[in-house]
Design brief:
The chain is built from eleven helices and 22 strands. With 407 residues, it is α+β, with helices and mostly antiparallel strands. It is elongated and about 110 Å long. The protein folds into four domains: 52 residues; 109 residues, Immunoglobulin-like, CATH 2.60.40; 32 residues, no CATH class; 163 residues, Rossmann fold (3-Layer(aba) Sandwich).
Amino acid sequence: MKYKKSDYSVSSYFVIPLTLIFLGLAAFIAAAKASEALARFSAIALVLMLALRLNGRLGLIRLRIVFELGARRLFRGEEFELKAEILNNKILPVWLRISLDRPEALAPLLEEGVQGESTLLPYEKLRGSWRFKADRRGVYVLGPAKLSAGDILNLYRREKHITLNQEIIVYPRLLPIHALDIPFREYFGARTTEGLVEDPAWYEGTREYTGNRSARAIHWKASARLNQLQEKIFQPSTQRKVLLLVDGEGFAKAEDREGFEKALEIAASLASAFAESGAYFSIATDRALKSFSPILPLGRGPEHLGSSLELLARCELSFGQALPQVVSLIGPQGAEFVVIARTPGESIKKFLPPSAFKQERLFFVFAKHDPDKSDHAYRSCSFKELLGSAGDEGGSKAGQDQERDEP
């Protein structure tokens, strides 16, 4: 931690040195002219100024500050708290001021902003907090914090910068949506606990062999390793398997950032709905991400949903990797595809034949869509249809523009 003199303390450079020089000369002249009162006053003032100067230089010594972030992961529109605890662990009192740099997306709720000023007595502890509101989706870092400390008269002070090193991830909002009418096909009958045929493509683990199944279900390598017969377990084949694809090309070309944010909120809401229903789902995008893979393999559960939301939180509008190329790495294994895009056109050409995607497995969700066009060769709906009246209340420019169609 580097210390430096305050860049705004003009008195530290001009007023204090000149005052010390003046008091020193006054004390010398008074002593030479045998003026006891003037000499005593000058000497006391000189000692006081030197003590304040020393106190200012020692202000940051044994001054400890600890920050505690209330939440590191939250949804857009939610609030969080940053707590600070400062301890003056020395015999000298100290004046201090603290301020904090912040991204514009994290707005403080107090009118005075993110700063504070106080005086700490010897061995006194001070606690304070700021509240913020996450106005935009993304990944942000608070800080650094600037701590200035000096003498109690604030004549001389020094400062240091403190790095918080705490990343804040703001997820897209979750919107109330209607269920997608997608016919999920099952090729292996009912659930594995009820059906006669299991799905060998969805291996889940092993368990002790019960003897009620064919020897083909025995996992020989696991049996040899554990010195006990183990049989394979397969995931239920009737669980939904959905791949959510966020196609950001149309939003980037139109420079439609608000529409892109709405698309990410739609993707997050669909992922949450699939997670609540127990479905297996994956998510991928052609946009660039901050230190994160653009594709999340099939999975389910709260942790998988959290990873999906983090992927969406890190999305940028700039191009990352071609979406068909990204999808080829997933190994969808018979899953359905839900493509979220701005408009039909180029987005349709990427996925409909002669592409590698099967048309009956595709479902499109468009930000701008013509509801009167009935001769679609693909299944689709619009943001407005998916959100209904609840989505209109959330309000955004992208949501309002859904009523206008683009060719």
